């Protein structure tokens, strides 16, 4: 027997409709590639989104079509979020920092029919033009005034909008499981793979983001979106902001420390999200610039994800009165799966004791189930000690990659293997100890490369560190620590090993430490160990 | 094109499964009808729920069957919430305070096949026994020790559980639109009507309750559940608590001021919910008892709904450092539809200015759309001034009553008419001015009976007030104010009218004031104006 409740699909369009009706004055502040800062409200944005929806339809975009973007965090990019999914098409955000060949691969793999791009990418797009047979329309995200230098065939976003009406739009109502957006994984461990979100998964994930035990996003927030709109839907924040009416500040192309700091101060941002690299830049700027006083900030909390949140960042923020929320997730999990919120019994913790909890990747929010398994697929205990392959399932977890890449990715109980190695403690806190491909197997036991890296960067003269396994005649594999030192700081292998000794088990101590000028990163700022292993393939550990 | 996200139905069973896995230690503290206080965790409750699920199946309960309860707020009643819905049957909570004929009507209308009852209702149930042809099993919510005095044929809850295994249970997975529970309206304006919730509506509503802009329920809460489990699923809190792992304190049969106060103090409750009547009793106890010091409370916020939250309650709580969240809703809306949270621009408000906002019924949360319409069904502006019929729609709003009562209740755009008269302001704040059946039409203009009642109870000597319309030769209808005075206080008609003069428009002033010892209430504590109009049907206004 079915219940007698209204049959309302959870659609992306309903988020903006709600925001326009009930949060019309909440503000979206956008830096642009052209320079000026643009201020909109959900009311004015909703009007523009309706124009855009009509423009898309008039360009021949139909339900299911992929519409690609190569764009920074601006209001126009956000408008595409709502208009493209709103008409039933699929928003395909492409990371413009990828290599041209990767971009070409992804756009062709997705068969995107239209490509919206920021003017900063005009020449990149012009070069790609002939290699993208599926793309019928290229639209520059700008106005007539700034159209000079755009590829000849490109349409101009603001012109398209101006041609259309902002009148009420009958957003189509359809099955909430319909695809809404497409995002490719970062390509840290191989070729990027497409994850196809649905309206349902997007709305459920947004609802979680607004929960107290989620990301606490709420009507009183003004969020500085330091995570790109092309990085897993900016962690769902554009949708969740519309859901609860939170204000949004979009930094445009500039994610450097000074730009973010100035924006956070000027717009009194209360919340922000980004990968560790972004926060390193932010905190470095505050540290080094005499004018940048953290007391000028209104920040209450920052969310860090994408890679492990370094303890040093958590501590520095804490000392500034800013609470760090670490979260773990993947492109495949929309992305937020676990969030490191504190339990009642942590209420009295302060300083190091609190950081001990905050460095964990967090606990699953409702909607996400997790477990760790051994090589035989048997579930391991939640004891905080036994590492295993982390698996996940739930309504915003992928059931397979776009166009069948990678084949069947779920086991028969619906578990998705994340490729991360983790422990889970009795409260459900996850600790990611490694990627399964990066784990170092020494004499049959596992050494966590992440733990070693964290210990290394806690040395004041170390900026970044990477640990990879190298073949060893007796132990099969032993760790090699590769370090980027601070400018001007003198530091030796022995100093670093001495620093590590009290922090890790003695048999974890790296067999060697090498110094480099920089480490290879992916387009989303992650350590590219694949490349590092390649670089060091001829290196031999000291005997 | 469908997205590639996992197909996980939103089921009530998944809430408890999540709580057991990730909040195993959160506590449920339950007063019982037998006397002792019982303490469980989600882990132990989940074990008992599995036993109960097996017991239900062994009693022959099948998917879709209604299973009725007549019970207070105890752990056993909460276990039924999860077990009954978990196996795909429908939990039908009956308000035991209704008249026996109403209970009989409702149980027969629902055709409930089993009836679980608290020992306090043993004789009521025994008397009903022969009038309930559909009921096959009656189960006393107690153990063998307390089985004396139970109807002969009654089974004993704890015995049933003891016979079953607590082993892992394969909760059936089914369409999330399946009916999960059934609750009848309060019967304030006519016969109670059945509202049939689904698993989907229940989980979506729970998710809202955990949002910052919802009820802010979270893992750090210990909630004193002062709203009965038979009153619209206790406003969804049992489900939402499992979702986020909040602790729950169940007061059993005692909802008097002292019992609630003692419990809130002993269990350090941070949150509580109830109708205004309950809070009046609670605050009266604190006011009158020298031992009851509000400083002993850990309460951070209370939610008030079911009837308008009186300003005096909001103020008294505020002075105790407790924040009041008013919410508006109906049995038909699961029930929470609008929540009175403050906007950023209210941040600086304190005292009366803040109460001016808190007395409003709140703004819709995402998932709920509202509007007010005139008699022709045309939408009225959100101007905070123009009253109209309040309509609502969304995934946790009813699409029709159980067994077709009342026929088609939605208009062609899916709007449900609430029977409430309201204004909506530009921010979306709803102000309920009346029930449409209670509105007083004087010379073509509407007088709000609720506003007049609120103004009257702000007089220190007035305990409760009701306003009804009486026929008038010139103005069609004029207001009559009916007042319950404070014990021992001397107060006259003129004193009350003088008090009202500065508070309401002069043409709203009641034509007469009558004093009574008490006013008629429904089983959920609401003013029964239907009955009052009946009582005063021969009364004539002074010329
Ligand atoms: N808080 C965190 N702590 C540690 N690692 C994290 C955290 N958040 C995310 N990660 C890592 O990022 C991964 C998800 O990243 P993403 O989906 O962007 O692509 P990728 O895994 O880096 O690339 P690819 O799957 O293409 O190799 C996780 O599997 C995990 O390894
Ligand atoms: N915060 C509030 N302020 C004012 N009125 C409220 C509030 N919350 C609920 N109500 C009133 O309660 C009604 C819903 O109550 P409920 O569903 O329990 O049954 P009822 O309407 O009293 O009974 P019936 O529908 O059987 O006549 C609303 O329609 C509204 O009139
Ligand atoms: Mg990955
Ligand atoms: Mg009603």
TrEMBL record, chains A, B:
**Cited CDD domains:** ttLC_FACS_AlkK_like (cd12119)
Which Enzyme Commission number(s) are listed?
A: 6.2.1.44
Which stretches make up the AMP-dependent synthetase/ligase domain? 23-402
The residue ranges of the AMP-binding enzyme C-terminal domain are 452-526
Which keywords annotate this record? Fatty acid metabolism, Ligase, Lipid metabolism, Metal-binding
Gene3D superfamilies to which the protein is assigned, alphabetical: 3.30.300.30, N-terminal domain of ligase-like
Biological process per Gene Ontology, one example term: fatty acid metabolic process
Q: Which reaction does it catalyse?
A: 3-(methylsulfanyl)propanoate + ATP + CoA = 3-(methylsulfanyl)propanoyl-CoA + AMP + diphosphate
GO MF, any single term: ligase activity
Pfam families, sorted? AMP-binding (PF00501), AMP-binding_C (PF13193)
Q: Which family does it belong to?
A: Belongs to the ATP-dependent AMP-binding enzyme family.
Protein name (record): 3-methylmercaptopropionyl-CoA ligase
Taxonomic lineage of this organism? Bacteria, Pseudomonadati, Pseudomonadota, Alphaproteobacteria, Hyphomicrobiales
């Amino acid at each position: 027997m079915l219940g007698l409740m209204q049959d309302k699909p959870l659609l992306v369009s309903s988020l903006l409709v709600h925001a326009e009706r009930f949060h019309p004055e909440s503000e979206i502040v956008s830096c642009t590639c052209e320079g000026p800062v643009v201020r909109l409200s959900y009311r004015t944005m909703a009007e523009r989104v309706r124009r855009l929806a009509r423009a898309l339809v008039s360009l021949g975009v139909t339900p299911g079509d992929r519409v690609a973007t190569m764009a920074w965090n601006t209001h126009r990019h956000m408008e595409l979020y709502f208009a493209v999914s709103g008409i039933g098409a699929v928003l395909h955000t492409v990371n413009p920092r990828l290599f041209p060949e990767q971009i070409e691969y992804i756009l062709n793999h997705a068969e995107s029919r239209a490509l919206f791009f920021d003017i900063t990418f005009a020449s990149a797009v012009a070069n790609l033009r002939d290699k993208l047979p599926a793309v019928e329309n290229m639209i520059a995200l700008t106005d007539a005034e700034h159209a000079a230098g755009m590829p000849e065939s490109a349409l101009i976003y603001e012109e398209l909008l101006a041609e259309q009406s902002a009148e009420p739009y009958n957003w189509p109502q359809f099955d909430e499981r319909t695809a809404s957006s497409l995002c490719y994984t970062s390509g840290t461990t191989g070729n990027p793979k497409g994850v196809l979100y649905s309206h349902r998964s997007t709305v459920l994930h947004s609802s979680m983001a607004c929960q107290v035990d989620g990301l606490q996003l709420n009507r009183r927030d003004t969020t500085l979106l330091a995570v790109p709109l092309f990085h897993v839907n900016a962690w769902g924040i554009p949708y969740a902001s519309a859901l609860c009416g939170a204000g949004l500040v979009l930094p445009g192309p500039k994610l450097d420390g000074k730009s973010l700091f100035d924006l956070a101060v000027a717009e009194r941002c209360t919340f922000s999200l980004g990968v560790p690299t972004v926060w390193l830049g932010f905190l470095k700027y505050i540290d080094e610039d005499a004018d940048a006083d953290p007391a000028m900030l209104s920040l209450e909390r920052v969310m860090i994800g994408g890679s492990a949140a370094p303890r040093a960042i958590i501590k520095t923020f804490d000392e500034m009165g800013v609470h760090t929320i670490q979260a773990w997730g993947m492109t495949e999990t929309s992305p937020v799966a676990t969030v490191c919120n504190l339990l009642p019994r942590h209420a009295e913790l302060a300083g190091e004791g609190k950081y001990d909890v905050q460095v964990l990747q967090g606990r699953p929010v409702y909607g996400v189930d997790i477990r760790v398994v051994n090589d035989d697929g048997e579930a391991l205990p939640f004891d905080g000690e036994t590492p295993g392959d982390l698996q996940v399932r739930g309504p915003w977890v992928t059931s397979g990659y776009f166009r069948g890449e990678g084949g069947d990715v779920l086991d028969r109980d619906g578990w998705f293997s994340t490729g991360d190695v983790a422990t889970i403690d009795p409260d459900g806190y996850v600790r990611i100890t490694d990627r399964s491909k990066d784990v170092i197997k020494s004499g049959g036991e596992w050494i966590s490369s992440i733990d070693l890296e964290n210990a290394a960067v806690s040395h004041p003269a170390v900026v970044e560190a990477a640990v990879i396994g190298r073949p060893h005649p007796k132990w099969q594999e032993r760790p090699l620590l590769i370090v980027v030192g601070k400018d001007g700081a003198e530091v030796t292998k022995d100093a670093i090993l001495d620093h590590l000794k009290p922090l890790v088990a003695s048999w974890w101590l790296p067999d060697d430490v090498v110094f480099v000028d920089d480490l290879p990163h992916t387009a989303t700022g992650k350590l590219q160990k694949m490349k590092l292993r390649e670089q060091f393939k001829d290196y031999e550990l000291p005997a």
